[in-house]
Amino acid sequence: MLGEEELIKLFPDFAELVQPSGIDLPLDKIYTQESEGSLIDNEKNLPEIKEMEGPVYTLKPHTAYLASIDRKIKIPKGYSMLYLPRSTLLRSFVSVQTAVGDPGFYGTLMFMIYNHGDYEYKIKQGDRIAQGVVFKVEGSGEYNGSYQEEEK
Ligand SMILES: Nc1ccn([C@H]2C[C@H](O)[C@@H](COP(=O)(O)OP(=O)(O)OP(=O)(O)O)O2)c(=O)n1
C-alpha cells in the first residue's frame, strides 16, 4: 500500500486530500435512479439517473443513490485503487458501495450510497465520503473500458 509521499507525487490533483495511507474522496453530486437497467451477456443497459438538487442532499431511509466524486482521477499505470467508506457514514447507518479502480483509469468515480437507517440522512457536497487506498500492481495492464474518459 502506498503512503503519503508517494501519493502526493502520483495524484497531484488530490494533494490536499492525501492522508497517511490513502486519499480522501469528496462527494460531488448525488443522483436518483429513474429507470430500469440490465446486464445480459455483458450488454450493459445502465439505469437513467437524475441529479438531485444540492448542495445539501437528503437521503431517504432504505433508498439507494449514486454519488459522484469531486474531480476526475487518473490512476497511473502500474497502480490500482480500492475504495473504502468513511466510518462516520457507517456509524450513521449509511454505506458507500464501491469497486476496484483499474490501472490507467481516467474519469469520474461513481459510487453507490445506501441509507440503511430508518431516518433521513443529510450530506453536503464537498464532504468526504470514502478513502482510496493505492497498491502497486506487478505486471499491470491498462484499463480501456466503457467508463474511460478522454484526457484533456
Ligand atoms: N465504484 C466504482 C469503482 C470503479 N470505478 C471506475 C474505476 C474503474 O477503473 C472503472 C471500471 O470499473 P470496473 O472494472 O469495476 O467496471 P466494469 O467491469 O463494470 O466496466 P468495464 O466493463 O468498462 O470494465 O470504473 C467507478 O467509477 N466506481
Low-confidence stretches: none
In the CATH hierarchy, what is the architecture of one domain at level 2? Answer: Distorted Sandwich
The biggest beta sheet reads: 9 strands, antiparallel
Task: Tell me the structural class.
Answer: mainly beta
Mean pLDDT score, rounded?
97
What is the name of the CATH superfamily of one domain?
Deoxyuridine triphosphatase (dUTPase)
Number of helices: 2
Order of helices and strands: HEEEEEEEEEHEEEEEE
CATH topology of one domain: Deoxyuridine 5'-Triphosphate Nucleotidohydrolase, Chain A
Bound molecules: 2'-deoxycytidine-5'-triphosphate
Broad shape: globular
Tell me roughly what share of residues is in helical segments. under 10%
Strand elements, count: 15
Whole-number radius of gyration?
16 Å
The CATH first-level class of one domain comes to: Mainly Beta
Strand content: over 45%
Distance between the termini: 29 Å
Question: Can you tell me about this structure?
Answer:
There is one protein chain. The radius of gyration is 16 Å and the shape is globular. Strands 1, 2, 5, 7, 9, 10, 11, 13 and 15 form a nine-stranded antiparallel beta sheet that branches. Strands 3-4 form a two-stranded antiparallel ribbon. It has a domain at about 25-35 and about 50-135: Deoxyuridine triphosphatase (dUTPase) (Deoxyuridine 5'-Triphosphate Nucleotidohydrolase, Chain A, Distorted Sandwich). The relative contact order is 0.26. With about 150 residues, it is mainly beta. It contains two helices and 15 strands. The protein has helices at about 5-10, 85-90, and strands at about 20, 20-35, 40, 45, 50, 55-60, 65-70, 75, 80-85, 95, 100, 105, 110-115, 120-125, 130-135. The protein binds 2'-deoxycytidine-5'-triphosphate. InterPro entries: dCTP_deaminase, dUTPase-like_sf, dUTPase_trimeric.
